[in-house]
Each structure stands twice: as C-alpha cells, then as structure tokens.
Task: structure prediction
Amino acid sequence: MSAQAPEKIGIIVIHGVGETYAGWINGYLIPRLETWAAYGNVDGLARRDKNNDLVLTLPAKDRDIIVALGADEDFRRFCFATGLDPLADDPHFSTRSQRLKHRDRLVYQLGMVLSMLPADKWLSDLCAANVPSGIAFEPESTVYHVRDPASSNPTKTWQSFSRRLALPRVEATVTELFWADMSNIGDTSVARLSALIQLFMESPFVLGKAFLKGSRGGIHGIISWLINLTNWIMHWPIAGMTIAILVAELIVIASQLAGLKLNLPALVALALAMTASGGFAAFRKWVHRKIGLAYLSLAGAFYAAFFFGILGYVVIFLPAAPLDDLREYIITGMTLLLAAWTLWTITALAAALAVVAVFLFRLLTFRLNKAPRSLSRPAAALSLSMILGMLWKAVLALLSIMIINALVPDLQPLNAACPADMTLEYFALTGDASADCTLAFIKAGLIDVNAINTVSIVFVLLVAALVISWRLGLRRFNAGAAQAGTLSLPRMIASPLILAAIFATGIFNALALYIIGFGDLGAGLRAWAPHNFSEYFSSGVIGIGIFFFLLRRVAESTDGIVHIGRDLVDHQYDPSPSAFALRFEKSRDRRAGAADPRRTKYRLRQRIQRRLEALIDDVILAQQADRLIFLAHSQGTVIMHDYLMNHDDLIDPSHRGDKTLASVKRIDALTLGSPLGHLYRYYFQDYDTLPVFSPDKQPLIYKLRGWTNMWRVDDPIARHVSLFPGIENIGLPPGGHMDYWREDAVCEKIWALIHGLGMEPPEGEAAEQLPETAGQG
Result:
C-alpha cells in the first residue's frame, strides 16, 4: 500500500511599499520562521536570545535540519543527544563567541555525524533533550523569470525567488510578489525631485476624485462639484500658465546672461513656441506613464500656444503696443496668474465654508455620527487640495520674485515707484499706474502671499507635529491590552485636528489676500516679515540655485513618503476612456482599441494584478498546489483584496483564474498592517460597501476560507479589518508599521496555516465562506 501523497501548499508573499528587491524571503522571512520553529518545538520561546540565536543548518541523511546552539546549555545538550560528548568540552566551541568564530568548522564536524541518520530520528532525540531544532527549508532557491503580461515584448520577465519546505505530509513553496517596484521612482536626487513634483500635481486630482466618488446629490453634490472645480483650476489654468510663463521668462533670462541682443517680441515668441512644442512632445512620451508630468506638460503646451496666439495678434493688429518693454510681458503674465489664483481661492473658500456649514448643522442637530464618512471624504479631498495649493502658492511666489529680480534688477520699492497720493486700493480698482508702479505692486503682493503662506504652512506643520507626538506617546499603552486587540489609535492620515488646521489656514489665506486686500494687511506684513531676506534670497540665478538645492533636500528627506504617495496615486488613477488625453495618444495605442476599458481603467493596478496572476500560474499552479495562502503586508493586502474581488474584470482573458484555480481546494489569507479598514474603507467608497455577487459570476474571494488580520496598536497605517464578518483580527503590542515578520504571533500563525492547524476540512460544507455576506456593509 503506497503512502499518501503530501499536501502541496503555495504561499505567496505580497509586499507593500519599501521592499523593492527580489529575494526578501531568503534573507528575512524564512530564517525567522526556521528560528521560531526551532525554539517552538521545545517550548523554549521564553529563553530565546533574539539578537544572536546561532541557528545552524545541518544535513541529515534525507533532508536538512536546523538547530539553535546560541546558549551554552543548548550546545551541551546537543552534544550529549548526538553522541558528540567530546565537543561539549572542546575549547573551540565551549562558548558562543568561540562557536561563532569557528562556525564553518563546527558545521562541518556536526554535519559528518548527522548525515548518517534521517532527520526524523535526530529531531526526535533533540526534542527529547530540549534542544531547539526543526526541519529546514531546502537551501537552494528557485529563481523564476515570470512573464510580464502587461508588456508587448514576449521576452520581458521579472524575477521571483521561491523556497521549498518538504515535510512528510506537507510540501510548501514560498514565493514573493513586489509592488513598490511599480512606482519606478529612481535612486537619484533628480528622480526623487521629479517624483515629488508629480505627486504635487497629481494628488488633489487623482485622490480627490477617488475620495469624492459617489458624492452626487444634495449639498454633497455641490461640495463635490466645487472641489472638482478647485482641482481643475489648479490642474489646468494655474499649472499651464505657470509653466508657459516661467519657462518663457527663464529663456529670456538665459539669453540675457549669454549676452544675446535679440528682438524681444521674437525672443518671447520663440520661447513660447519651444515651450508649446516641447510640452506636447513630453506629454506624448509620458501619457499614462508619468501622470503628473504628462498633464503638467500638456497644460504648459496649451497655454504657451495660447499666449503665442495672443502675441501674434498683438504684433499684427496692434503695432503701437509697447512690445519692447520687458516689464509689460511680466505684468501681463503675473496678472493672469494672480487672477487664476483668485478664482482658485474663491472656489476653495466656497467649498470649505460648505463643509463647515454641514459640520455645524450636524453638530447642532446631533447628527454627526449619522454618516461620518460622507463628510470626512470631501473634507480630506479639500484639505489635500488646500494644503498643496498653499505650498504651490509659496513656491510660485518665490519663483516669481526671483524672476522679477533677475529680469528687472533696478526695480524700485513700492513706496518709491508709485506716487505718494496713489493708494493701493485705487490702483487695484483702476490700474492707472506706470509699468514700474504696477510691477512693484505685483512684487509687493507676491511678498505678502509668501509671508501669509509661510505662516499658514508653519501652523499646519506645528499641529501635525503635536498630533504625531501625541500618537508616539501612546506607545506606552499596556502591551497586554494591545495583544488582546482592545486598543486602537486615532487615524493619523487626515487626522481631524490636521484637517481643522488646514481649513483654518485656507480660510485665513482667502480672507487675508482677497477680501481684506493687499493694501492694509500688506503694510503690516511687510513690517513684520523678513522682507530683506525675501529680497536677497530671491535675487536672480543665485536664488533659483538655492531654491533648487532646498527642493532636492526635501525630496531626499521624504523618500519614504514619496514612495507611499506614488503607489497610492498609481493605485487610484482611473482616467475615463473618453478622456481628452486619449486623443493625443500614439497611433499604435489607438489601433489597440480605444473602446477597451482595460486600456484606461486603473492601468497600474491592472499591471500588478496581471503579475500576480502570472506568478500564480507559473509558480503555484504549475506545481498543482492543493492549497493557496496569501501572506500580505501593508499595500500588499490591498493588492490581495483587489485580486480576489475583481479577478474577472482586471485579468487578461487569456489567463482566466476561474479555470486554473479550480483545482485549489482552499485559499487562506494572513494580512499584516493592512490599511483596508483603517484608511481605504474610511476614505474610498469602493472599499466601504461590498457589491452583491450573482451566483453565476462569483469572484475568487468566494474561495477564501480563512482570513486572519494582525495589526499593531501604534501602527499609523493599520487597524482591524471588518470587510467581512468572518475575519479574525488580532492586536499586537506596539512596534510600528514595519517588520511584522519578527513577531512570534505572526510566525505561529504561518506555521499553523502550513500544517493546517485549526482548519475545517477544505471540502466541508459546515464552514461558511467569508464573502457570503457581501453587500451587508
């Protein structure tokens, strides 16, 4: 009678942001699992030395085993259990430091003896002697060159490392899928700066749209419309005019520095033409690959062409216009920018006041808890737009002052350039002033903008620092209560206190700049603000160089935040198939079929879904696995959720998993530090309520028979997940968002899943599948 074949298990580790290299399971996860198993087999977790376990992989007759010989007593017991008594008193191995020093020699001598008998015999003797030991994973890794279904190149592949564990009744294969490499940020300072600029332009447009999805009726529809209008103004008129004007002015500066004596209208026209053509070429290169830079380029190209047309009209039909005065060009460009910012501020102020009005109404009528997410989502979207708008204004104010100082170095201060009897209020209403007076007025206004934004941003940063400090103080919470899952921390991302600070500063910006006016407030600000510092800092090319250096330092110091923001934006980017941008795509893309929604809907999300499907096909299903286990961390838990929920819609039809995965009897999941319940369900409506699935089209999540979610009490990203009523949530002691694989509870759960402990039979009908209550909330 033949022995029963071992059960085959496939384990897929799905990484979140930050793990950008292949082979992570070899260097971190598997050694940790082996160490935990070695001590767990003899109930020795309490005496384990986490800093230096001295875990050795030794060859038995049939397979490798691991032994932990860090403690001197463990080594002596090992020697007596294996008949190697003389080694216990050998001065080369008598202490831990000596065993470390002569590690290779020790492994050689022990291996010669252990290779004579099977692993089960040695493990039985070692466990009886209370020596930490266990079965080791196979030492050799298998490197799979998995196809990239998103690439048109059939030879395009990516690497995935796999390790195998062979037990008498179980064969497990562990492999990994990376997410952060999809962001493609790069390692240089310039690449990080480029990524920061892209996020700067993309976040309000992409995330704001995702936050506001579903807000269509009543006051929420009006708020949503105002926020979308605010984002559109920043995304197109402000960004486009900024690029067109600043690039043209920088070209003029470069020509002056080079000593070129060119006709000014011709030089400006040439600069605008170069901006338009270069922006359009950059857009066609980057569309749907670098979202922010693509649309920034397209907006700049559009407005550069628009200004080029205006300049041509003036040259042809208004020959008497003062086209040789550089001040007139600067005044025209800056006036248009200030007008666009005025419109942006008005719409942002209207949206903010509407949100505040709804909040106060619910507060007075005791309805704040009725639908908190319906108010939190527009508040988060508007806050994102407002804080980035304030940063954008501060950047533009500094750059504009630099440009003015470089192009008109002899410009007099406001009080000297304008007549004493001309008030700023009169000037703002009539515009009856000389070019020097007008330009001095604009420069004074820009200095006011810079001062107000600086105060506002500092206030927001102080509030954010207080919130973060308060959260860090909560690490002192009782670890036992955290282990029981009874503690939870406030939401860090878009905290209510931070939202309130952003709203207050945004309203302050609007009132200070566009209701009170530059005149009275500006005088007080200039008396208080470091006016001379602004002058010297913003002086020409030196100021631009200093500013670029500071931006590079900011980009480098926020590298982790940039990665998180990049992946979050990529995950939520959902352009419409009929978007204006599609008209400018290359002909080969148009021939692929513009009606196909897969070409435009969640492009980056689909790519990682197809990678996951290819990995399952090539590594897991190729070995005819009986069970599949997902081990996901952070953003990887969202990838797992999306794959199981939307498999039929997101995967290429040529790799349909509903056929290939039919042989898998059971799918389990272990999620660590998941943002699904803490952030995604709170801010994105798609993750708030689950759709009801028809019986004839059940997603892969119907195969999910067990889901355990673990989260640390002080993790700012994660909390319990309650998408389904059958999810087991386990709270862990404080420790932050990273390195969950170090936790004993995580290792214990992984081994329990591998050995099938505490599971109902995969084919049994008694256990209720998790998603059968989908649609109930």
Observations:
- Residues 1-23+150-182+602-777 form a domain with the Rossmann fold fold (CATH 3.40.50).
- The first strand starts at residue 7 and ends at 14.
- The chain has three domains: 1-23+150-182+602-777, 36-140, 189-557.
- Residues 242 and 337 are 7 Å apart (CA to CA).
